[in-house]
Design a protein that fits this description.
The protein is built from 13 helices and five strands. The chain is mainly alpha-helical and 327 residues long.
Amino acid sequence: MKRIYFSGIQPSGEITLGNYLGAIQRFVTMQEEADCIYCIVDLHALTVPQEPETLRNNIRQLAAIYLSAGIDPYRTILFVQSHVPEHAQLGWLMQCVAYMGEMERMTQFKEKSAGKSAVHVGLFTYPALMAADILLYQATHVPVGEDQKQHVELTRDLAERFNRRFGETFTVPEPLIPDFGGRIMSLDDPSKKMSKSNPNPNSKILLQDEPDDIRKKIRRAVTDSEAQIRYDKENKPAVSNLMTIYALLSGDTMETIEARYAGQGYGKFKNDLAELVIEKLRPLQERYNEWINSPKLDDVLREGAEKAARIASRTMDLVKEKMGIKL
């Protein structure tokens, strides 16, 4: 069976090094393995208030980062979710297949709604839209981090329920969770994921950060009192997180890194890590500056939406026929 990978990222602000290492860098490699469909999920971003011009700019910036990182628009499909109306159409139909209890159990809704006096309905129902995103393209696999596994499990449940009720229609996708490096943690608190929403600027490295900012942030990253470069996620989570970043950027094993910095303390390791990050991000930043103001970016997104729509419309025709709403 032909492998089809689908994944989406929200255009909700600047992209962190954690986003890059945990997702986008993997997406580039996956172009060699399967037919890949990468979606900028702007409809999901609307589950929280957005300034229209800011959202518009964020969409372009994320597209430019995808392309700068090495996503090849001639080998993959890269597009904006709202440019293919079938996403919203199938999202509604999936809401009519899903159960309230399933939505209430979604941990991300609980986290994002906690402490808020008013929550948009879209924040509650968006897992059904996420399922629609995946099922539209008959994806066989969904590359996700461990924190998104629940959403893929819901997608599988909805696909199987639909297939039982209406006949074989959807491919039931598998989550594709990396064994290593799928979750980069915050520089100021290794118990939390590196996030652009963290108000502490020193908690994260942004892909557009200047070299001096990167050096400062890594120099200030928390470690521990042992002063030993050793990979031990349970007892040395902060140092292990920094080592993970180093390994993902350099291709070195943990054993190699440990041996290289044996007896040298954290200062030398942090300095070298900062220079490695700067070196690896520099070409990406240069390509980004070329893409962000290029009209070719709009051409890529338009052509990507056209390719995606051809696939999505075939799925929607089948779904409507099965459900009895195609005359």
